[in-house]
Amino acid sequence: MTAQDSATLPSRIAVTAPPAAGPRPGSRRAGTVMAALGVTAFSLTFPATAWGLEGIGPWSFVALRGVLSAIVAGGALLALRVPLPARRHWGGLAVVGAGVVVGFPLLTTLALQTSTTAHAAVVVGLLPLTTAVFSALRTGARPSRTFWAAALAGAAAVIAFTVQQSGGALSTADLYLFASLLICAAGYTEGGRLAREMPGWQVIGWALILCLPLALAGAVIALQYEPFRLTGHSSAGLLYAALGSQFLGLVVWYRGMAAIGVPKASQLQLAQPLLTLVWSVFLLGEHLTPAAPLTAAAVLVCIAVTQRARG
Questions:
Q1: Does pTM top 0.85 for this prediction?
Q2: C-alpha span between 113 and 60 (Å, rounded)
Q3: Which residues contact 72 (CB under 8 A, 6 or more apart)?
């Protein structure tokens, strides 16, 4: 090999090396399905919480929800002998725990004491946009202008619909709802980032374990001062909130976010308020206005645009 050959070898390698592979179409489709399953699971959270509050106090409900889901997650981690996360991950796991294990469940449960599920759906209507903003700030994601326009349009449609559903009046629960919006968006963003480095079920699993001491202490204290009556509704609501939305829903949600990215996955949640309102009709006996199908069509168009836009 001559000196000239040696000098030009790196450039030849650079020219002939295959380009870095992006996410495969099949992987993106699977990620979209996973994120959609997470949204479906989350859409039942408010009706399940309303059922739970029929016999269980709000603080007790949230604490017991955290204890039950942490027991299931801890059993899975122990059975599979999953090693402890790296030290650099614990800060992110603390954010996930504060956002989706403690903050969002507690604040929305307190809000649902005086708010209907229709009004509380305003939070979910704004959550996709807020999560996309947090993702841009935290991870450097830069979605296109088309993405942001469709996301804003979808959020506006959901807000208009849910405010109309609640009669156009703001309730005293709004402070709880808007605070839960911010803290949950931070938890979603951090969880989506961590799910690129470790399996999504381990992200929520370790976050639940991290919050277990707080949940246990909260349950012991709250149960002394709040009512606790297990009925068919309150038992089903507690079990679903703990296992369906707190654990299994977040497992598939974080897998989806890792596959298709936080911004695009978050926009699938534009459908969540409408699904929640459908469940509220069948499970809680609430009534919807004729605006529901029109809003659903508008939101589905916005979702399609965000999924095709450059993320």
A1: no
A2: 13
A3: 242, 243, 247
